[in-house]
Design brief:
This protein has 239 residues and is α+β, with helices and mostly antiparallel strands. α1 packs antiparallel against α2. It starts with a strand and ends with a strand. The protein has a five-stranded antiparallel β-sheet with strand order 1-10-9-6-7. Strands 2-3-4-5-8 form a five-stranded antiparallel β-sheet, with helices on one face. Helix content is 32%, strand content 28%.
Length: 239
């Protein structure tokens, strides 16, 4: 498999701290984005702990073997919970976490929260993840009308995160890879300000991942920079 990758994060123009973290490990072909929950103390610490533990725990796993991502993220969750007790014993800390691994000509995605993974293939963009928000959960359970009365703040509230006392349910997805695939992991500081057709254009037209991820971060900043923005981009040149 031959790939090219790039990653970038930006604090934006409003926030006093960048609470996003990312992992770009080309040796293990392991990538992640974590977005610390800003409504709690220690959002940056939660994201840092999640990404750091992911890197540490996977280093001792067989590089060519199958990984149990739900169990791995449960262990990461325990570490974030423990760190949270030292920062805010009452409320704790929390973060989103999206992880991508390329292995055996397949793309594996593990996902908790509202950071996103997109697949650009054959000129079309597909969002592989569903945001774990109140609005999406209500729509899944009760249909479209049930969520219509939600406020903007309520509808975007997370229903799952890493750092909650009860281990979160982890969404898992596996897809076969094709040459030409372009895979984007990003925080909501990107998706809140850049529409999917624009994402598709940027990913499809860029000659390389560095050019594309820089364009995404710059565009999010030009539209206000109201949040931290982070992207990790993988170009699959050969499977």
């Amino acid at each position: 498999m031959r790939i090219r990758t790039a990653a970038q994060t930006d604090i934006g123009k409003i926030r006093e701290e960048n609470e996003d973290r990312f992992l770009r490990d080309d040796e293990l072909r392991l990538y992640a984005v974590a977005d610390g929950i800003g409504g709690l103390a220690g959002g940056a610490e939660a994201a840092e702990e999640a990404v750091g533990q992911l890197s540490t725990l996977t280093r001792v796993l067989p590089a060519d073997g199958d990984w149990d991502f739900p169990a791995l993220i449960r262990t990461i969750n325990q570490h974030v919970v423990r760190r949270g007790r030292t920062i805010d014993e009452l409320c704790g800390i929390g973060t989103t976490l999206i992880v991508v691994r390329l292995s055996h000509q397949h793309l594996q995605v593990a996902h908790v929260g509202d950071s996103s993974c997109f697949l650009h293939r054959d000129g079309a963009l597909e969002k592989l993840t569903l945001d774990h928000t109140v609005e999406n959960e209500m729509r899944a359970r009760h249909g479209r009308g049930a969520a219509d009365h939600l406020s903007a703040r309520t509808r975007n509230a997370l229903t799952r995160c890493v750092g909650q006392p009860k281990p979160p349910e982890v969404d898992i997805l596996t897809r076969p890879l094709k040459a030409g695939d372009r895979i984007l992991l990003c925080s909501d500081g990107v998706t809140r300000f850049i529409q999917e057709p624009e994402l598709a254009d940027i990913l499809g037209q860029a000659a390389g991942p560095t050019e594309a991820v820089e364009a995404l971060i710059v565009l999010a900043s030009e539209r206000g920079g109201f949040d931290n923005a982070t992207g990790v981009l993988i170009f699959v040149d050969e499977v």
